[in-house]
Write a structure and sequence with these properties.
The protein has 456 residues and is α+β, with helices and mostly antiparallel strands. The chain has helices at 44-57, 70-81, 113-123, 144-152, 190-199, 218-230, 261-274, 294-301, 334-343, 363-373, 406-418, 437-445, and strands spanning 25-26, 35-38, 61-64, 86-89, 92-95, 105-108, 129-133, 156-159, 168-171, 179-183, 206-210, 235-236, 242-245, 255-256, 277-281, 304-308, 311-315, 324-326, 348-351, 377-381, 384-388, 423-424. It has a four-stranded mixed beta sheet, with helices on one face.
């Protein structure tokens, strides 16, 4: 088993608010079934794709519904560093017209995978060097497939530590030939999405072929393709593991961002854990977000899922049953599902998520370590976790480790609903995607039944 504890003190190297430095946060324990309605912030994945496409269009665009999260702020900061006028924050961000990408600048990626993987392909179009760096953990996350692909497409990349990780400098020359490239995207779908988003701006367009184990989180690539097509970019994805982007303009248009369904999952899981009933307002009738898959998994745990015109409602069972699920395409849901599995009455097996070892932290090792510390039985497998029911208990001598990972922090909050005495060592890291998470969580536990009361 990996021991990720050395990462627990990771801190951001940015002035943008990041993981907090406060005392451990006592996770509130539910006194009964959790009931209420929640309005969650916009999708980080859609927000950062929309911001980048708006900037690539070169015109005046508005992104509505974006979350006031750290990841969104980092993308805004990256675009500004590259010379794009961006105004506003939170639910309305205006991206102004510009006549090119500015080099001789620095981009802070923080711990945002969408910034560290999506912005370098744009920076190749800048008129000079662009230096990238981020949080300590970001320097450990893989970047090789993106940087090698950019080299193959004609970019010059200078690394500063001898490996293809942060920090590095991309020497823009005002354009990129583009063409065809082969890469291994088995570590992250972001390697593909990052290239596709800028492909239409390259002289020859772009053809990306994946060669390796199956790409994880394919719905995120489908989201990228759908948003490119909405901007009138021609994309051919008919051939498996290949994507062809034709060169041409990206249309100037405004964007509306859906609620973040992956972030919504922990609120729905609160109903599952406590035999309660929670509604997420504004849940779309159809979505390319991977987070939509949480509904099927909650049903396997024994929950009742009821879609409605105002959102979706989950009613928790008296007892959670164990699950056996392949989460390869929806790995971001793993911490929430693992927390519920630890509260279930039967064993669970979570499969297909070996790639989570390269996320904000090694999530498999972190989950196994933290659940075991509470008395649980959680064991890593080559591609996931096996979790068997055992009584859990809070540790006054040891808080739940968040590892500067927003989804680890919310998993600890979920466990704390049922297990008294759980404290999360860094609840502030939830600002990465869920602004004011503690207040939203506390309002829901108060039985709130309106969007304003539930922190929406």
């Amino acid at each position: 088993m990996h021991d990720p504890s050395i990462q627990r003190s990771s801190r951001p190297s940015t002035s943008i608010p990041g993981p907090g430095e406060l005392a451990p946060w006592p996770a509130p324990t539910a006194s009964g079934p959790v009931t209420g309605a929640v309005a969650v912030p916009g999708s980080k994945s859609q927000s950062n794709r929309a911001l980048l496409l708006a900037a690539l269009s070169g015109g005046d665009c508005v992104v509505v519904g974006a979350a006031a999260s750290r990841d969104t702020a980092l993308m805004v900061g990256a675009l500004r560093a590259l010379g794009v006028p961006v105004r506003g924050a939170g639910e309305r961000i205006e991206v102004g017209a510009h006549d090119g990408w500015r080099g001789r600048s620095e981009v802070d990626v923080g711990l945002a995978g969408t910034v560290m993987r999506f912005v370098p392909p744009v920076a190749a179009l800048a008129d000079g060097p662009v230096r990238f760096d981020g949080d300590p953990r970001a320097r450990e996350r893989p970047m090789g497939p993106v940087l090698d692909a950019l080299r193959a497409l004609g970019a010059r990349v200078q690394t500063h530590g001898g490996t293809d990780t942060l920090p590095f400098t991309l020497h823009g020359t005002g354009g990129l030939p583009g063409g065809e490239v082969v890469l291994d995207a088995s570590g992250s779908s972001q390697f593909v999405s990052g290239l596709l988003l800028s492909g239409a701006a390259y002289e020859k367009g772009l053809v990306v072929h994946h060669d390796g184990e199956p790409v994880p989180s394919l719905p995120h690539i489908e989201m990228t393709v759908d948003m490119l097509r909405a901007a009138d970019v021609v994309v051919d994805d008919a051939e498996p593991n290949s994507w062809r982007v034709s060169p041409g303009p990206i249309s100037v248009r405004d964007w509306a961002v859906e609620p973040d369904l992956s972030n919504a999952s922990v609120f729905l899981a609160a109903a599952a854990a406590t035999a309660g009933q929670v509604t997420v307002l504004g849940w779309p009738t159809a979505s390319t977000q991977p987070g939509v898959a949480i509904l099927g998994v909650l049903a396997q745990f024994g929950c009742t899922v009821t879609p409605g015109p105002g959102g979706v409602t989950v009613t928790g069972p008296d007892r959670l049953t164990g699950v056996d699920v392949d989460l390869h395409d929806v790995g971001e849901l793993t911490p929430t599902i693992a927390a519920l599995a630890a509260l279930a009455e039967g064993p669970s097996r979570l499969r297909g998520v070996a790639h989570l070892r390269g996320h904000e932290t090694d999530r498999l090792a972190a989950l196994a370590t933290e659940l075991t510390a509470l008395g649980g039985d959680a064991v890593e497998t080559p591609d996931g976790l096996e979790i068997r029911p055992r009584p859990l208990h809070g540790r006054p001598d040891r808080p739940w480790g968040a590892y500067a990972d927003h989804r680890m922090a919310t998993a600890g909050a979920l466990i704390g609903l049922v297990v008294s005495g759980v404290a999360v060592d860094d609840i502030g890291c939830t600002d990465k995607t869920i602004p004011d998470f503690p207040a939203r969580w506390a309002a829901l536990l108060g039985g709130a039944d309106s969007p304003s009361a539930s922190g929406g």
